[in-house]
UniProtKB/TrEMBL annotation, chain A:
NCBIfam families: recf. Keywords: ATP-binding, Cytoplasm, DNA damage, DNA repair, DNA replication, DNA-binding, Nucleotide-binding, SOS response. Coiled coil: none annotated. The keyword Mitochondrion does not apply. Signal peptide: none annotated. It is found in: Cytoplasm. It comes from the Bacteria. This is DNA replication and repair protein RecF. GO terms for cellular component: cytoplasm. The keyword Metal-binding does not apply. One of its GO terms (molecular function) is ATP binding. One of its GO terms (biological process) is DNA replication. ATP binds at G30, K31, N32, G33, A34, G35, K36, S37.
Length: 370, 199
């Protein structure tokens, strides 16, 4: 799928910006603070109704303004689409093809998007929550039911934790009080793990191969889904549910002592290793960068296969710290993508030189020339 | 609350405690009452007090009613072998509107939610269980909301009913996920009722 135009009004430093895209590769060039990342953020926001940097809606409103409004038009295999997002006074309104969406989650999966930025080294440097979020966003974009399951799971977890907390204070719990929450935790949790398993089964080999391609085979990455229930490979929902139920029984005392749920998909991780060693503990800067790129490319590839067309791909300053060989390899990989948006500060950067792209010069949140 | 005559302020402060009414709306409503004729204002005040004085929970089904037992419980053309459990009085209204259900109801007055301090003791569960014992009820339809809390409540009740040998069905998920029963349109609700499943 491709985006053919973008309108941003009062979105961060973009007071009124209108851009049309007719090329496959689109390069935003501008000085630090010009608004390049903000444009990419606007594109991402239109697709999934949230910021790739995890910013709150209120932070996206231009200082001094009381709303922002975004509009995007584009093409999918199914035909043209139009998407709008407005945030005013803490209220969000999202429209798709002229219909106002009752729930924001209805947007998810309509236009798929993948974002790659320097921030993504958090994926391999940060705590497990970062990697779960990565996986959850990828799977949510190919399955709306998954998103619903995640929300229900989270709610169940909060309710159950409250029961455990009360149990800790009052020194015990009746089995009937936990049972209804256990049942749902187990059935939702097992289904979530099944989805994560199969997503990782597809994503991992691709990401591993892409890592190899980036590094010219100099080192290799390993990627393993490490759930707290099951072994992460091809277990059925029933097997997982049984193991989950057993584990809950065995950890019950510890759970009451701590006042929280200790097993389940909310504790899962993805283990990333390079050259057989844990990347988080031993990785170099360049290895973290390459791994982040490989993970994002793997995500994009997963979406491409499930949706049957390419997601929109936004890349923020990802070439700057790659050595020449890796940068060259990334250019080659990106060439086969239906549509990409990139940001860079320099017109003599590798991506500006080697990718044939339509360029957009930005200054103070405004478009200067193309 | 706003500056103004104490009586206006007092009304606005009462209104703001109602669900879905913010400070601004409360002030607007209070000013609106000021502009009403005396008859209109008296009618409103009496209607409010009447709800409190005249209505209570039905001693059988725990629905809100003026007569005890309520018209549905008193109606002996209804199928006494079929009992539908819902969370709120509004759910009874929604189900009645479909015209599909011929049995009677039990209103729990809520759903399990530890986060809100709601356990089984806060719900009309004791009343429900004593209704089942030695009755002619052959099937219980659990029509709690299709969300996490409604599901937990259904699971909890199921455990209690099972030993009694009464058939339990759960309303099929014809209802949009995550939404409340109250908001489901009549067609989906009717379909959900037909498609209830044995659990
Ligand atoms: N809510 C907001 N309202 C107005 N301006 C904002 C808001 N949020 C951020 N900005 C400003 O937007 C400017 C541009 O930010 P952006 O991150 O897009 O720059 P950039 O072109 O990507 O720069 P760099 O090359 O440094 O990454 C910053 O100077 C920032 O102060
Ligand atoms: Mg930037
Ligand atoms: Zn009654």
């Amino acid at each position: 799928m491709r985006l053919t135009s973008l309108l941003a009004r009062n979105f961060r430093n973009l007071e009124e910006l209108h851009l049309s895209f007719d090329a496959q590769r689109n390069l935003l060039i501008g000085k630090n603070g010009a608004g390049k990342s903000n444009v990419l953020e606007a594109i991402y926001y239109l697709c999934v109704s949230r910021s790739p940097r995890g910013a709150l809606d209120g932070e996206l409103v231009r200082w001094g303004a009381d709303f922002f409004h975004l509009e995007g038009r584009g093409e999918r295999r199914r035909g043209p689409f139009e998407v709008t997002a407005t945030v005013r006074g803490g209220q969000k309104e999202v429209g798709f093809n002229g219909v106002r969406l009752a729930r924001i989650s209805e947007l998810v999966g309509e236009i798929a998007v993948v974002s790659l930025s320097q921030d993504d080294t958090k994926l391999t440097k940060g705590p497990p929550g970062q990697r779960r979020r990565f996986l959850d966003i990828a799977v949510s974009q190919i399955s709306r039911i998954y998103l619903q399951m995640l929300n229900d799971y989270r709610r169940t977890l909060q309710q159950r934790n409250r029961v455990l907390l009360v149990a800790r204070e009052s020194g015990g719990v009746r089995a009937e009080s936990l049972e209804p929450w256990d049942e749902q935790l187990v059935s939702l949790g097992a289904r979530i793990i099944v989805e994560r398993q199969s997503a990782m089964e597809e994503l991992a080999p691709r990401a591993i191969a892409l890592y190899g391609q980036l590094g010219g085979g100099r080192d290799s990455m390993d990627l393993v889904y490490a759930p707290t229930v099951g072994d992460g490979t091809g277990m059925s929902g029933d097997e997982l549910a049984n193991e989950f139920r057993d584990k809950l029984v065995r950890t019950r005392r510890a759970e009451i002592e701590r006042g929280q749920t200790l097993v389940g998909p909310h504790r899962d991780d993805i283990e990333v290793a390079v050259g057989g060693r844990n990347l988080r503990t031993y990785g170099s800067e360049g290895q973290h960068r390459s791994a982040a790129i490989a993970l994002r490319l793997g995500e994009a590839d997963l979406l491409r296969r499930h949706i049957g067309e390419d997601p929109v791909f936004v890349l923020d300053e990802v070439f700057s710290e790659l050595d020449r060989d890796r940068a060259g390899a990334l250019v080659t990989i990106l060439e086969e993508w239906e549509q990409i948006f990139l940001a860079t500060t320099r017109s003599d950067s590798i991506e500006a030189r080697d990718l044939e792209a339509a360029t957009f010069l930005l200054e103070d949140g405004a478009f200067v020339e193309g | 609350m706003m500056l103004g005559p104490p009586s206006l302020t007092r009304l606005a402060e009462c209104l703001v405690r109602l669900p879905g009414i913010g400070k601004k709306t409360a002030e607007r409503l209070a000013l609106y009452v000021f502009k009403m004729s005396e008859e209109e204002a008296t009618a409103l005040a009496e209607a409010v007090v009447d709800v409190k004085r005249r209505t209570r929970l039905c001693s059988v089904c725990c629905n809100v009613t003026e007569e005890d037992p309520c018209p549905i419980c008193a109606d002996d053309t209804r199928d006494a072998s079929l009992l539908c459990v819902v969370e709120q009085p509004g759910d009874v209204i929604a189900l009645e509107r479909t015209g599909q259900f011929k049995g009677r109801y039990h209103v729990l007055q809520g759903a399990l939610s530890p986060l809100d301090g709601v356990g089984p003791e806060q719900l009309r569960v004791t009343e429900f269980m004593s209704r089942l014992k030695g009755s002619e009820i052959a099937e219980v339809v659990l029509a709690t909301n299709p969300n996490v809390e409604g599901e937990a409540t259904a699971l909890y009740l199921m455990k209690l009913i099972k030993p009694l040998g009464i058939m339990v069905t759960r309303i099929a998920r014809g209802i949009p996920v995550g939404s409340d029963l109250d908001f489901a349109d009549e067609v989906t609700l009717a379909r959900a009722l037909e498609g209830r499943q044995k659990v």
